[in-house]
Design goal:
The structure is a homodimer of 210-residue chains. Chain A is mainly alpha-helical and 210 residues long. In chain A, 62% of the residues lie in helices and 0% in strands. Chain A has a domain at 69-208: Orthogonal Bundle (Tetracycline Repressor, domain 2). Chain A binds a DNA duplex (30 and 30 nucleotides) through residues 4, 25-27, 35-39, 41-43, 46-47. Chains A, B: One of its GO terms (biological process) is negative regulation of DNA-templated transcription. Chains A, B: InterPro entries: Homeodomain-like_sf, HTH-type_TetR-like_transc_reg, HTH_TetR, Repressor_TetR_C, Tet_transcr_reg_TetR-rel_C_sf.
DNA sequence: GCGTATACGTCTACACTGTAGACCCATGGG
DNA sequence: CCCATGGGTCTACAGTGTAGACGTATACGC
């Protein structure tokens, strides 16, 4: 009955969603499961392992794009990217975990494979496929992490992130763009536009040496 | 005499370089400065503020590309990107800090401005400049963070990151690319190639609506 | 000169963290 | 019957960030 492990991961995930990642302590998880903190260690070797477990959960949710098998390669990449962002929107605390944890669970490898196949189908020379896979996954994860951490919304969230109003004389770019700055950004549209650009990049790479 | 604050940041940075970010505790920093833990709070409001302070230090090191003022826009972007990666190579623990901390110190804003100016000079329509700035900074930071966290070198570092050798039947992409996988990646060359592709993306965006 | 305010430092204490180690008990198999 | 094994509990330890009270030395107004 390994169901206890799943129950633990459920609890950890719920706590993270409700009170943030910092609130995920062994004691908190244990209390939620209705058990003593030390009991967790019978099912999870470490706290690190516990965190690995929950990123595993999230990665599993990334895959089930099973209906997409017939679609074109660029649509499949788009779907995967949007799935990834959907996850980090639902679980903002998870973004930086996806980055730091090497995350070589079977599901993660499967996700990478989806990208590999798409790139091959796009006509990328095989030698270049791994590099471009890293490029697009880096961008998608980076976007997701930036959004989750509030890097795209300076001024929102942390109060210390109010721009220090330094003399605009030092900032030719900012003063030139003043009309467009400070108006709200539509991150949905931006992510879509960025993905379009990245897909165009891929197509260009395929043309260069196909 | 605000020199004490700098001394504290120096100590914190040294500890992080020598023993990793987790070793940066208030007590450790205090001991290195030769003072009681609580004395730090006279110069630094929080541990969070202390971390903000050291990312400020790193960002300051990002800027002094003062000799590049005459160069072409793409060379300036390249220089900035390489400077960023150089920092996270020297201080791998800092990569994810650069991501998560909104980091709206004056120096950070100045760095953004450098990118703004380069994009304007590249002929990007002003409306699109902020988006593309976020795109390139996201990619550069993402690459740096991935490299620092070992995401690009599965198998190295954490022992748990040995791929789970799951049946290759499920992984058409991997088995197709087998010859190219598992041979060492030259991340210097990869970063250069990626930047070339991103710059090409920018040039394409400039052409589309210049 | 004196008195006082302010900057800096120390000490103690508190609530928390992850987790090692010993102990306990119920279940199931020889 | 006995014992091993899986799961749970309790205690304890070293370490974390930091609030609050206390001390002291320097600088400044009178």
């Amino acid at each position: 009955m390994g169901g206890r492990r799943e129950e633990i991961l459920d609890a950890a995930l719920a706590i993270a969603d409700e009170h943030g990642l910092d609130a995920v302590s062994m004691r908190a998880v244990a209390e939620r499961v209705g058990v003593t903190p030390m009991a967790l260690y019978r099912h999870v070797s470490d706290k690190a392992a516990l965190l690995d477990g929950i990123v595993g959960r999230l990665l599993a949710a990334l895959l089930p794009s099973d209906g997409d098998r017939g679609r074109a390669w660029d649509e499949r990449l788009n779907a995967l990217a949007h799935a990834c962002r959907a996850i980090t929107q639902r679980h903002p605390w998870a973004a930086h975990l996806l980055f730091s944890r090497p995350a070589v669970t079977p599901d993660a490898v499967r996700a990478v494979d989806v990208i590999y196949c798409a790139l091959i189908e796009a006509g990328i020379p095989e030698r270049e496929v791994p590099r471009l896979e890293r490029l697009v996954s880096t961008f998608v994860l980076g976007f997701a992490a930036s959004e989750a951490a509030g890097r795209f919304n300076p001024g929102t969230g942390d109060p210390r992130s109010r721009r220090g109003r330094l003399p605009d004389g030092d900032l030719p770019g900012h003063s030139r763009l003043a009309p467009w700055l400070n108006l709200p950004v539509d991150l949905d549209a931006e992510f879509k536009a960025d993905l379009d650009d990245v897909l165009a990049l891929i197509k260009a790479a395929a043309r260069k040496q196909g």
